[in-house]
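batch_manifest entry 22 of 60
target: IFT80 protein
source organism: Melospiza melodia
requested by: lab member K.T.
priority: normal
notes from requester: please return tokens only, no post-processing; we will run our own comparison against the previous entry in this batch. if the run fails, retry once and flag.
--- input ---
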Amino acid sequence: LVSCVGWTTADELFSCSDDHQVMKWNPVSSETTRVLRLPDEVYPLDLHWFPRGIGGKKQSQAESFVLTSSDGKFHLISKLGRVEKSVEAHCGAVLAGRWNYEGTALVTAGEDGQVKIWSKSGMLRSTLAQQATPVYSVSWAPDSDKVLYTSGQQLIIKPLQPNAKVLQWKAHDGLILKTDWNSVNDLILSAGEDCRYKVWDSFGRVLYSSQPHEYPITAIAWALDGELFAVGSFNTLRLCDKTGWSYALEKPNTGSIFAISWSIDGTQLAGACGNGQVIFAHVVEQHWEWQNFQITLIKRRTMKVHNVTNDAVDLLEFRDRVIKASLSYGYLVVSTSLQCYVFSTRNWNTPLIFDLKEGTVSLILQAERHFLLVDGGGLYLYSYEGRLISSPKYPGMRTDILNALTVSLSNDTLAVKDKADEKVIYIFEALSGKPLGDGKPLTHKTEIVEIALDQKGLTSERKIAFIDKNRDLFITSVKRFGKEQKIVKIGTMVQSLAWNDSCNILCGIQDSRFTVWYYPNTVYVDKDLLPKTLYEKDASEFSKSPQIVSFVGNQVTIRRADGSLVHLHISPYPAILHGHVSSSRWQDSLRLCRFVKDQTLWACLAAMAVANKDMSTAEIAYAAIGEIDKVQYINAIKELPSRESRLAHMLLFSGSCQEAETLLLQAGLVYQAIQININLYNWERALELAVKHRTHVDTVLAYRQKFLEDFGKKETNQRFLQYAEGVSV
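--- output ---
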């Protein structure tokens, strides 16, 4: 039987078997060569290649691997088949061996129930765990600071530093045979003799549990980018989505599949089979949809484009195999193993082609004017003409773990959530690749899990929405102008979110409701108005933990937990209103709202009008939703004599007291600045201003005295007592 397999490059695989041979396969040229014959008493059990990217130096291929065997040793073997070192590790067989992501440590697990950590050269560093039952499988955490291992029916996560909290839970009703922990999505897979496979988060909560199969699940493995995983059993190979549902089921005649290894680019996998065969499988038939186009990868190097409006079909042929693709904003971007192709949806015949430096692209993100390629070496922003615009960098950058939830791109801004400090979002200017503003990243008080930039509007008003670990949704402005940024919470228990591609409308799934924030900017204008600008709909039809796939035009696409897609349509009017307001057509906006007669739309218009300082429209809109106090205040503002005081009171209306005061002081309207502080009962500040400008001290004291008399209180504030003696009121 073949016990273990592992890829060195995207086109070269090594396999080890109970016939003591180590073989090398090239699936492209179908060549097979013997690399090495092991001694007769050595039966191989697990193989893992040394990681490729070490200390910033990217090797194009792995140079050596660790092989664990039944005689209690592990062997470090070079690519050419020379055994560099054999180390006595366990009593009984060494069942698993895994390098950490940096290649600085190796973990082995044995039949003797021990889990040991070794240095790169094979010196014992520590014994992490000892138990009475054999440890069948072991995996590193994404940061290489914890180890996951099996203990009978239990899964255990143990941090490397001593005295840290150990997490342990019962995961299966039978022996657990295999585990895998992905570094991109931080999810854990487990497979057991109870014939089930399960998906867990890193806190040990179950996210998916399969139906029982006919036979024990003997192999399970994540693709590198964390979007797919493969499951192997007796005569069974299954391809699944990261949320657990199944894309494809094959029944090859292989016996049990004992190990699965994905190639580096995630396009193919190999399995070690019980009947002495090595099985190769390629992922095909991925779909991309946008507006009226549906694109399918039908072969490894061929795509089929289907235009559903006129049933036209185009075939796109590529020189090398397709690794990643993205379709949006009228462009299809495809990366192959060596090149990147950019097709316009208006013309499929003449793509723009340019060469790639690194090769394996792990993520493509599109905005209207440009797109981002992420590979092992960095972030690269290209225009649709194929010109490299910029390549942003930040300290401690690890691009291999970025995914669509942790990177967001708009026409002028790029945001990246870092792994080293999960509370930080780095924000870059897209065109220069330099950090935005004062160069300080955006910092939140808890860890952030998902980020998204809005796509439209002015650069100075760019907003970023993000979900933190408690599933609260926040919004903040990307540009800070040196003042403390206001991060405002606009939702709770948010599972998934997406901005619209053509106007700044945000949608999300909150707890059991599907919510659309028609004008999220409302929180900066008039916070109390936000609930009136929402659209909510019961989301129970989407079953548990649905994900928003896209939000294009007025159609939202949601993927349910079972893999089926649901399409939702939202009202087209808010988008039309956004369009009117962005080109300052206030009359048309009013006409639209009067025609639709919808409170939500009026509330959006009120907020938009205040944001754009158009007070007459705001007055009509507030009147339509019955906010009479605000109508009166707006009327009062309109009657103010000077432009500065009108602006200041509009800032006050939006709750920006500090800015209003600064504006009045700059305009020399000291008395008004003092008066607004008195009205807000900011007594200290009012007195401070009066003393500083040597004017109206008596007025402040008089107001203060009247205020205290009304409430029957005595003056206790030292500063007021001190000035009251010297000034007669």
